[in-house]
Design brief:
Layout: H1 5-15, E1 18-21, H2 26-37, H3 39-53, H4 59-63, E2 66-72, E3 79-81, E4 85-89, H5 90-99, H6 105-129, H7 141-146
Parallel strand pairs: 2-4
Antiparallel strand pairs: 1-2, 3-4
Length: 150
């Protein structure tokens, strides 16, 4: 894909629209910690990471991953993986909490677990490949060859 100067301008404008926030949600932070230590939940990501990197996920790798919340002025970004951090959109969390009732809490928790597993997997791939540019989108062999990911 070839980007124009206006594409870069739009992208840099979007980057300035992310603000790290102090989002008070003990429930979500506790759930994040429980996900990381639950061997049944982490079995699938660990298997993917082992297949992709040839390395086993160490507990110290999981322990080193923290969570941050951000506000994003443009819709559509719900989370992303950083360097030993998972970033979650507090804007999206607030939206979901407004949309669901007490019966929807299980669906909300499943949404959060899915998002966290996806982003933790990306962080762990980067740790184990020692390459910040690698993410789960590279997992196909064609992409590995195309982007020269080793």
């Amino acid at each position: 894909m070839k980007l124009s100067f206006s594409d870069f301008d739009i992208m840099f404008h979007m980057i300035r629209s992310i603000d790290i926030v102090n989002f008070e949600s003990k429930d979500l932070i506790d759930l994040f910690s429980k996900i990381k230590i639950n061997t049944a939940i982490m079995k699938a990501p660990n298997s993917v990471i082992c297949d992709f990197t040839g390395k086993i996920v160490e507990n110290s790798d999981l322990d080193s991953i923290s969570i941050e919340f951000f506000k994003f002025r443009n819709p559509g970004l719900y989370g992303f993986a950083g360097l030993r951090k998972v970033y979650v959109s507090s804007s999206r969390i607030e939206e979901l909490k407004d949309e669901i009732d007490d019966d929807g809490k299980v669906m909300f928790d499943l949404y959060f677990v899915r998002l966290i597993l996806h982003e933790i997997t990306n962080v762990l791939i980067r740790i184990n490949k020692d390459n910040m540019n690698v993410s789960s989108r590279f997992i196909t062999v064609a992409n590995l060859e195309k982007y020269n990911v080793k």
